[in-house]
Amino acid sequence: MASGWHFEGRSVVGGGAVQSAHDSRRTNRSPCTWAPDAVGALNTLPTVSPQLERYIQMNLRSELAQVQQHMVQNQTATMLELGTSLLNQTTAQTRKLTDVEAQVLNQTSRMEIQLLETSLSTNKLEKQLLLQGHELHRLQGRNSALETRVQALETQQQAELASLRGEKERLRRLLGRQSGALAGLERSLRAASSNSSLLQRQQRELLESVQRLVRVVAQEPASVRAAEQVFQDCAEIQRFGANVSGIYTIHVANMTEPRKVFCDMEANGGGWTLIQRRENGSVNFQRNWRDYKQGFGDLAGEHWLGNEVVHQLTSRAAYSLRVELQDWEGNEAYAQYEHFQLGSEGQLYRLSLSGYSGSAGRQSSLVLQGTNFSTRDADNDNCLCKCAQMLSGGWWFDACGLSNLNGIYYPARHHARKLNGIRWHYFQGPSYSLRATRMMVRPMGI
Ligand SMILES: [Ca+2]
């Protein structure tokens, strides 16, 4: 700004030219006297002053014009310089700005792209969120329905449980009452049973008395026939009023001696006269003809009543035969023959049967007609061999047949694969030895 200072120095003094004109005088005179003198001189020269003033004005004007021109030039140059500098700066700034703008634009573009991508992914996420929201809502609905259902079920179960508890309690009380009643009944039954036993005993005693009476009467020939008719067999004793199974005495027609027999008053209506019983192997059934003819064993247990008695009994009237069987597994079966008759000793106690029925096989294990009785000492079978010796006991062997209830008694766990045991083919096969058997007769049609 040196030019500025230069320009200013001159402009401040306004009348610099006047000062320059006085400078020459200042060199000769004292400054403190010069100024009032000059003014006074000027005031004393009124005629010269206008011309001088014009001159000064002319000189000053041209000088001013030059100074002004110079100043304008200087200022213009300075301004130009400044302008150029500014232009340069502006250009640089503009370039920088352009660069920055380009960068900003790039950046903006990138950011826009990112924004777009973000927006897209946000949209996608929003959609997913919406879908998940729907799904969640649906699941909540379902969950709620399930909860309701579970609650309903729980309620129902609780009600059922309560009902069951009530029922259980009721049953328990009922059981308690029934147990009490049962105990009372048992006591009553025991009392009744002892009464019944007493009654049975009395009945038997009465029967014995009657039989004694009958025997007394029988001593008179005229009364013999009547007495025999009364107690011919167990069916007649039952008809007389006895309904308890046990040993009774009968008088069979054509037999001189009375015979004790075991009567079954219960099975299938009762009135049965037992002719055979096996139950524990306590009696030996390996006997001869004579023994089988007369009978043997214990009437209350195992026994064979005797072929002769049976022949006499079944010759007087039509009789039925019932065979009862029991195996080692606790199964029971029976075979019943509507008509049963045994021939005389002269006819070798030939068997005659008809009208088979029962549960011990669909057909009879005894040959119905024409089979004679055989024992180890009387071979009357239809075999060239001796069935009674091979198979043991006395029986109506054919050749050698499908049954033998008088075979050897085999105890438990030894009953299998025994050909000489107690057999009934159509019940348990050809080699199974049975646990218990009974054969009994009663008049046909009862
Ligand atoms: Ca033979």
UniProtKB/TrEMBL annotation:
Q: Where does this protein have coiled-coil stretches?
A: 136-174
Q: Which UniProt keywords apply?
A: Angiogenesis, Coiled coil, Disulfide bond, Glycoprotein, Secreted, Signal
Q: Name one Pfam family in it.
A: Fibrinogen_C
Q: What is its main location?
A: secreted
User: Domain named Fibrinogen C-terminal: which ranges?
Assistant: 225-445
Q: Name one GO cellular component term.
A: fibrinogen complex
Keyword Ribonucleoprotein tagged: no
Q: Where in the cell is it found?
A: Secreted
Coiled coil as a keyword of this entry, yes or no, is yes
Superkingdom as given in the UniProt entry: Eukaryota
Please give the biological process terms from Gene Ontology that the record holds.
Answer: angiogenesis; blood coagulation, common pathway; cellular response to hypoxia; fibrinolysis; negative regulation of angiogenesis; negative regulation of apoptotic process; negative regulation of blood vessel endothelial cell migration; platelet aggregation
Q: Name one GO molecular function term.
A: protein-macromolecule adaptor activity
Share what the entry says about its subunit structure, partners included: Interacts with TEK/TIE2, competing for the same binding site as ANGPT1. Interacts with ITGA5. Interacts with SVEP1/polydom. Interacts with THBD; this interaction significantly inhibits the generation of activated PC and TAFIa/CPB2 by the thrombin/thrombomodulin complex.
Q: What does this protein do?
A: Binds to TEK/TIE2, competing for the ANGPT1 binding site, and modulating ANGPT1 signaling. Can induce tyrosine phosphorylation of TEK/TIE2 in the absence of ANGPT1. In the absence of angiogenic inducers, such as VEGF, ANGPT2-mediated loosening of cell-matrix contacts may induce endothelial cell apoptosis with consequent vascular regression. In concert with VEGF, it may facilitate endothelial cell migration and proliferation, thus serving as a permissive angiogenic signal. Involved in the regulation of lymphangiogenesis.
NCBIfam families xrefs: GGGWT_bact (NF040941)
Protein name per the record? Angiopoietin-2
Q: Which organism is it from?
A: Ursus americanus
